[in-house]
């Protein structure tokens, strides 16, 4: 298994270059094709609305402005990839809303790279990573807004990146709760896990779910990973307990703290979604990780 088609979302945010840098390194490691997509934000349903006057000059000017903005987002994509040694790529400007449009293209990709929402963003911009995650059917690698936007990389014949390169995967934290979402995330992360120097399977509050984890929590997952050439270790921890029933809380924050404590450069997480509406409502753990992440997070739903 390898990532042969990598999709990267492009916009005019300051850290968009970090996504291209990460896509480039992963493309070199996997001999992959990279698709850069910028979206105008024009709903595809606009073209189906018979009430819209196609001859309206104000509409034409508005569409031109949106398409020019998308073209600016793509302007540095090809030169950056060429400078980094990636020569199999294409770029697209799509007339569609960001989440819906990118999700459609992602259904023909192995991995989609998007950016973390910027602090203070609201509405569809804040929910964009979640919408792509739940609607695309594709694993999503979310890049933190603190990531380095520019730099040079070098990848050896063995697919190992040079020190200091931004792509994740040297020290990986796998958040494991024995759910189908977590299982899918680990499956989708295998190309990264195989190249990792260390993989830690983090299990929180295992004693509360003995039927899921058994007498040796994580042992079956570690054995399965080993058969795929991934050496992993298990760490058991407990999240804070509150209330009369001492229910676990702040699981997402606990995972982020554990990743920081172990100096991990990637988290693998199965994401829970509780709604299919446009502004996706994610489970508390997923939302806490998306809001507080400082390292890339590979998610699957």
Can I get a quick summary?
The protein is α/β, with parallel strands linked by helices and 301 residues long. Helices cover 37% and strands 19% of the residues. Helix 1 packs across helix 3 and helix 4 runs parallel beside helix 5.
Structural class: alpha/beta
Instruction: Kindly report the spatial arrangement of strands forming the biggest sheet.
Output: 3-2-1-4-5-12-11-6-7-8
Spans of at least 5 consecutive residues whose pLDDT stays below 50 are 274-281
* N/C terminus separation: 19 Å
Mean of residue pLDDT? Answer: 84
Helix and strand sequence: EHEHHEHEHEEHHEHHEEEHEHE
Shape descriptor: globular
Specify Rg, calculated over alpha carbons: 20 Å
The major sheet is characterized as: 10 strands, mixed
- Tally of alpha and pi helices: 11
Helix share, percent = 25-40%
Beta-strand content bin = 15-25%
For the secondary structure, the number of strands is 12
